[in-house]
Amino acid sequence: MCNPSIPPRTGMGLLILTTVAGAGAAATVPTNQALDQAANDPTASLMAVQIQNIYSGNYYNLHDESGNTVLLRPVVPFTTGALSHIARATIPYATLSPSGKTGLGDSVLFDLIVFNQSWGRWGVGPVLLLPTATDSALGAQKWAAGPALGFVARQPSFMWGLFNQNLFSFAGNGRRDEVKLSILQPILNYSLPHKWSIGASEMNITYDWNQGVWSNLPLGVKVSKLHKFNALPVQFSGSYEYNFANATVVPEWSVNLTVKLLFPM
Fold first, then answer.
1. Distance (Å, whole) CA 253 – CA 226
2. CB burial string 173-211: b at 16+ within 10 A, e below
3. Residue 225 belongs to what H/E stretch?
4. Three-state SS for 106?
């Protein structure tokens, strides 16, 4: 599950996740799901810390501009009674942007309640946008929230699904545009021998209700490799996306390099 397509996104997110984790014991990866597949499954109850570098090139409606963002994405599974949750924060830091500004962007938190099924898993929960940007050019200066819903169906080597997030602003700077976004993320992954896998990239297909346009229509591919360093599993992945939506100021293409540290319980 990916980040909303808003202007570029601390310890606050980590603090929230750590507090939430104390609500119950961390859940485990289902025994019928391989670790390399669970690493690509956004509904898997798998504790992880992901560091992601996204280089974006050739912004539409700007002349020869590029950007680079580093994302920190901790994931903490926890339980409340009989319910299994996945808490995730996405905390971005822009190291290069068309505005010339660098710094922290807006953070996104969600709490997904997941339900295991014979065919896979589905989940539902709230998602929240926090105005944590250190510069007005790097964030929306709005608080926003909405529902998230998704599912993942899986077989031993193949996994597919769809995830939807919705954000609607309810507070913040009254002089800034309202945040009204719906984001669809298709999930597609095929496991290969020797812990390799290939599938769709984190394609955040985004509709901007304010402007009445698709602000992001990406098509991309991702290749991943799971490797163990002693007892620590680490997934390395790289992806490329091309964006077909050119109505707003968004990158035409992006390259994504990710390191994900996994902590199966």
1. 26
2. eeeeeebbbbbebebbbbbeeebebebbbbbbbbbbeee
3. strand 218-229
4. coil
* Number of residues in the chain: 265
pLDDT of residue 109: 97
- Virtual torsion, Cα 251, 216, 167, 28, nearest 10 deg: -90
pLDDT score for 18 = 44
Go through the domains of the chain in sequence order and give each one's CATH number.
11-263 (2.40.160.40)
Q: Count of alpha carbons within 13 Å of 88, Cβ hemisphere only?
A: 25
Lowest mean pLDDT among 13-17, 153-157, 168-172, 189-193: 13-17
Euclidean distance between CA atoms 105 and 4, whole angstroms: 12
Distance CA 204, CA 31 (A): 29
d(CA 202, CA 187): 8
Statement: the pTM of the whole predicted model exceeds 0.85: yes
Q: What is the pLDDT of residues 185-238, one digit of tens each?
A: 999 999 999 999 999 999 999 999 999 999 999 999 999 999 999 999 999 999
